Amino acid sequence: MFGILFIMLASAATAASDTQILTLNECIELALKQSPLIRSAEMDVEASRESLRGSKGALFPRIDLNAAYMKENQPLPYIPAQSMKIPAKFSDEVYSWNIYLRMPVYEGGRLTKQVDVSELEKNIQASRTTFTAQDVVANVTNAFNKLLQLKELRKANIKAVEAIERQRGNTELLFKTGRAANVELLRVNVQLAGEQQNLIKTGEAMSRTKDLLAFFMGMDVHEISDISGTLSPEETIKEQDASSLVKLRPDVIALSLKVEQSGKRIGIAGARRYPAIALVGNYGNRAGAEMHDREEVWEAGAVVSLNIFDAGIISSEVRREQALQKKAEEELRLAELKAKTEIENALSSFREARQRLEVAEKALSQSEEALRIEELKYKTGAGAITDVLLAQAAMSLSQANYYQALYDRLSAVTEYKRATGTIEVKR
């Protein structure tokens, strides 16, 4: 019995140790390490890096080793006759091997442009990875702050429920002594039910937000026991010209590189019109049955290839790449317009939230004082329960508005950083 109890306690302790109480910085660090979105983007960078190595490798000589064994239905000359006195060698089995060398000399700039394209692709993927990481950091920050907001709102909901429960107790005493009507007790119960519903809603919203935070971090929600932090409105925005900030966004940088890459692709397609020149060499051996009468063979020279007629295929490919370049230019222009709009919207949201927070702070202070006065009046018999309940409802609404405005202000700062590409990513 004691052994089973010990195992259960040990299991509970292990499960508790697996969960973590995380700060915002810890959440961001874990997200940068574990997020599938970031890992996937990093694999794109790795793939483009290998593609670049392949493109550079095409500039160097290529050496192939070939070996073959052929069984024929009749003897064939595997060594040709060298003179009237030295006849050909025949065999129905032929063994051979050779080393083939090809070294590109000139291909109209196609190979060097392909290296440039691969280099640009690597930079494009790196910029996209940075943008993805910034996006993940922004989402984690917003989800974390939303969870903090809901935690504070839940505390306020609990206090409101406890206050109304105390008020119900006072009203029940007054009702028993004949100093309050039954309808007043009913009103208190209705108000209590409303606050309890708010508490339930806030609790479920916390659960959903915690799930969302875990998703952005690439973790199981059960690995996060709680978060630690405060909603601080100290961070602000320094307004700058949106046009200059747009150029800092990683997605805009990636698209500008894509436009440049498209120009290189046009050059690659057009390079097929020029001759391709390569040095070639071949060295090997041939032998017949039982590996007798082995002969050494070799050759070396240059190969020139020039397209004469291809029914317009090259021209079609050039026009295709030109169309794709125009598409990339329009995508870049669209991204710049989108970025400017997001920056302006973030600034507008920040100004709105800042003003709302100032108003909400005053309203919260006034609602607390109004509730205190109405409760005092009701206790002394100078007020009505309706006024107390209205004051309580007003204070609950003021608290919700205050925490929402506080979150919106922090969210606007985060969105501004996301829109300007200035989110710091430490990896």
CATH level-four homologous superfamily name of the domain at 24-60 and 109-265 and 339-420: Outer membrane efflux proteins (OEP)
Kindly report how far apart the N and C termini lie: 50 Å
How are the strands ordered across the major sheet? Answer: 2-3-5-6
Q: In CATH terms, what is the architecture of the domain at 24-60 and 109-265 and 339-420?
A: Up-down Bundle
Question: Per the principal axes of the C-alpha atoms, what is the gross shape?
Answer: elongated
How does this structure look, described?
The protein is α+β, with helices and mostly antiparallel strands. It has a domain at 24-60 and 109-265 and 339-420: Up-down Bundle (Outer membrane efflux proteins (OEP)), CATH 1.20.1600.10. It contains 9 helices and 6 strands, in the order αβααββααβααββαα. The protein has helices at residues 2-18, 24-34, 36-57, 110-176, 182-217, 242-246, 250-271, 313-379, 385-420, and strands spanning 20-22, 62-79, 89-106, 224-227, 276-287, 295-305. α4 runs antiparallel to α7 and α7 runs antiparallel to α8.
